[in-house]
Design goal:
The protein has one domain: NAD(P)-binding Rossmann-like Domain (Rossmann fold, 3-Layer(aba) Sandwich). Helix content is about 40%, strand content about 15%. Strand 5, helix 6 and strand 6 form a beta-alpha-beta unit. With about 350 residues, it is α/β, with parallel strands linked by helices. Helix 7 packs parallel to helix 9. The longest helix is centred in the middle third of the chain and has 22 residues. Strands 3-2-1-4-5-6-10 form a seven-stranded parallel sheet, with helices on both faces. The structure holds nicotinamide-adenine-dinucleotide and thymidine-5'-diphosphate (TYD). Thymidine-5'-diphosphate binds next to helix 7 and strand 8.
Amino acid sequence: MSGVAGGGDRELPGDGLTLLVAGGAGFIGSNFIRYIRGAQPGWRIVNVDALTYAGNLANLKDVAEDEAASGGARYRFVRADICDPVAIGAVFAEEKPDAVVNFAAETHVDRSIDDPGLFLKTNILGTQVMLDAARRAGVARYLQISTDEVYGSLGAEGRFSENSPLKPNSPYAASKTSADLLVRAYFKTYGLPTLTTRCSNNYGPYQFPEKLIPFFVTLLHEGQQVPVYGDGMNVRDWIHVDDHSRAVEAVLLRGKPGETYNVGGGNERTNIEITKLLISLMGRDESAMKYVQDRPGHDRRYAIDDTKIRTELGVVPQVPFDEGLRETVRWYLENEAWWRSVKSGEYLSFFDRWYTGKGR
Ligand code: NAD
Ligand code: TYD
């Protein structure tokens, strides 16, 4: 593979690229690492993650085992907090990454309503630490993983384009928006070759079971009722996590520095539709559904206009929603031990028990 033009002075090497992935032990980051190991066998991945409640090295057990069996030159995990400039500076100095993808964040809207300060710290200050480290290291690309939630809420009509106004409604969305503005500022002020993606709601394996789809699948499996917020008519645009990974790879390789790319699945569904699909796939009936008090500031509808990434980078989602959802439900049923260990909290000692071999 030949080199790819970067935004600054530096080119992205083709083979032999070292990619620093922050937040790689979470849902999307771990799926991305698994995907990119297959798609870019010449790349070396350094996964930097603080292992908060949402980080789980069991999400990458297969990758770590494959790596150990094949000599250990292509993947490394480093436990570090993106808010800690000394620790992050040391990782950059040691690993000398060519490119960075920042997935690390606090991500659950309901938690942001309970504890906004943590979201501001991780998502804004953590991003600033990552940007500073990337700037000092002179990386060829810095890709910030953002969200469609920065655009706020839509009515019945319209879709978010990259030029839509930024109107975040939750502390989570406000913190991600602030991070996006910092990324923009580092491009404009320092010429750091930044890129930003704003994706819609992801689904797939290894999603923390506080988010709608895995939360409901696991509750239905346990014979419990699922709590639908408000009238259940809120709309989300669902994308399979592998389609998100393909988009991230394309933006990293072919995106234009300074630009933002929307990523969507083209699958708008109301929460009621999702709930009914899950109830049917799980063999329950509609008595398994209960309406509960709405989330404060609950965004009504998200929908993505992904014309830019389609036309400029040729990225088109590949996973049909019904098929992807069916396979995802099957994955949770076949991997009950994974989500049971997450729900019980047992996974929190995984790092010590399995990764370091020390036990807790
Ligand atoms: P997640 O909550 O599953 O994982 C987040 C990861 O970040 C965890 O591994 C956690 O340990 C790590 N992390 C948190 N704070 C950290 C810190 N201070 N230092 C280092 N690591 C830290 O989240 P996800 O769903 O995989 O989302 C990943 C990214 O994608 C986030 O930036 C999120 O805003 C964005 N995003 C998510 C969705 C979605 O539907 N899940 C959609 C669009 C964008
Ligand atoms: P979620 O997975 O938290 O993602 P986001 O808020 O980032 O879109 O929620 C998806 C939708 O499902 C959202 O409209 C809120 C709704 N929801 C429920 O109705 N009940 C629940 O228990 C959860 C977790 C979410």
